[in-house]
Each structure stands twice: as structure tokens, then as C-alpha cells.
């Protein structure tokens, strides 16, 4: 059993949500220390950018401290390979290489436009910030191009890296969840048959539902 695992942050943060889901998938015990970064004015710019993980999530394991959510997920899977979901980060070098390619794709291609849409479609209304339709349209176009590639891959595979749920899929959950919470954003997913099937399946995982419940109980960003 893992000891001394701590997560600092709010479940409403996409970075924190990614880490929490990974920990639930690995069936690890941990302590969540809720740090309200959203109410502090000096933290608001980082929150608005939604692209810099610093200040969004901090993970401690003994004397080891990490602040990037994807690096934290890799670390958790590597440190505790035999706990919980053993195939989350692949069980062989080829599987892991494929998962890594998708983690890179998510971070570099999916995350930038989806993070912008998360802010403008999901967070801005709660922060009384006017939506920027030009920015929304620009990032919708970028995300559509990414999802078109996903649609093709998912017509051949059950999940992104093959026929099992892995970090490749998990890493997409936080941003996707906020996007589909708006009618405009939802169409980006429902308009693609295989993407819709994939998201419906991964979003119903018990581990992700645990995180969604935590977000609803402690909105954090919107209080």
C-alpha cells in the first residue's frame, strides 16, 4: 500500500482532476489538501491561462515533489505498477510507447485549444467575463482538426492507444468534461460517431465519476 501520497489543489482544476483520476485508477490511498488558488488575485492570471500547471496541482510522495499533472500520472504508474489498473501505462515497451505518443498529442495538440474552450465556454460565465466569440471560433476550428484525427483512429480502436483504457484516454477527460458541459462544446464530440462513443465510455468510468462528484461537492473555482 502506498504511503505519504498528497495532492494539493482543487478538484475543479483540470490538472488536479487528471491526477485524482489516475490515483483512483491505481486504487491508491492519498490525502487531498484543498488549496484555494482561485480566490487569490495573484493566482488568477495562471488560472485564466489554464496552460501552466504550476500552481494548479502539487503532488508529494515522501520527499518527492512534482507539479506537472502528466508527469505526476507517469510517476504514479511507474512507482506503483502492480496496484489497481495494471495496464494504465502499458504492460510492455511497445504499449507504453504508443501511450506516450498519445500523451504528447494530448499535451501539444488537444490541450491548447480545448483549454481555451474550457475557459471561454465553462469558466468565463461563472467569472462574469464576456465570452470572446472570435477566440472560441478559432479554437473550435483547431479542436475540430484534432478530433477528426481521433475519429479516424477510434474507428479502428476501442480506445486511443488500442483496445484498453490507458493514460492516453484518461488525460483527455478533464478538459473534455468541461467542454461537453456546454451545448456548443458538446457538438464537437457528438458530431463524430466514434469520438462520441469513446467519450461516453471513458466518462462513465467509476474513477472519473468519483472526481466529478468531488467537483460538484467542492466547486472551488466558482465559489
Automatic annotation (TrEMBL):
<dbReference type="Pfam" id="PF02798">
    <property type="entry name" value="GST_N"/>
</dbReference>
<dbReference type="Pfam" id="PF00043">
    <property type="entry name" value="GST_C"/>
</dbReference>
<dbReference type="GO" id="GO:0004364">
    <property type="term" value="F:glutathione transferase activity"/>
</dbReference>
<dbReference type="InterPro" id="IPR036282">
    <property type="entry name" value="Glutathione-S-Trfase_C_sf"/>
</dbReference>
<feature type="domain" description="GST C-terminal">
    <location>
        <begin position="92"/>
        <end position="222"/>
    </location>
</feature>
<protein>
    <recommendedName>
        <fullName>glutathione transferase</fullName>
        <ecNumber>2.5.1.18</ecNumber>
    </recommendedName>
</protein>
<dbReference type="GO" id="GO:0006749">
    <property type="term" value="P:glutathione metabolic process"/>
</dbReference>
<keyword id="KW-0808">Transferase</keyword>
<dbReference type="GO" id="GO:0005737">
    <property type="term" value="C:cytoplasm"/>
</dbReference>
<dbReference type="GO" id="GO:0043295">
    <property type="term" value="F:glutathione binding"/>
</dbReference>
<feature type="domain" description="GST N-terminal">
    <location>
        <begin position="3"/>
        <end position="84"/>
    </location>
</feature>
<dbReference type="GO" id="GO:0009635">
    <property type="term" value="P:response to herbicide"/>
</dbReference>
<comment type="function">
    <text>Conjugation of reduced glutathione to a wide number of exogenous and endogenous hydrophobic electrophiles.</text>
</comment>
<dbReference type="InterPro" id="IPR004046">
    <property type="entry name" value="GST_C"/>
</dbReference>
<dbReference type="InterPro" id="IPR004045">
    <property type="entry name" value="Glutathione_S-Trfase_N"/>
</dbReference>
<dbReference type="InterPro" id="IPR010987">
    <property type="entry name" value="Glutathione-S-Trfase_C-like"/>
</dbReference>
<dbReference type="InterPro" id="IPR040079">
    <property type="entry name" value="Glutathione_S-Trfase"/>
</dbReference>
<comment type="similarity">
    <text>Belongs to the GST superfamily. Phi family.</text>
</comment>
<dbReference type="InterPro" id="IPR034347">
    <property type="entry name" value="GST_Phi_C"/>
</dbReference>
<dbReference type="InterPro" id="IPR036249">
    <property type="entry name" value="Thioredoxin-like_sf"/>
</dbReference>
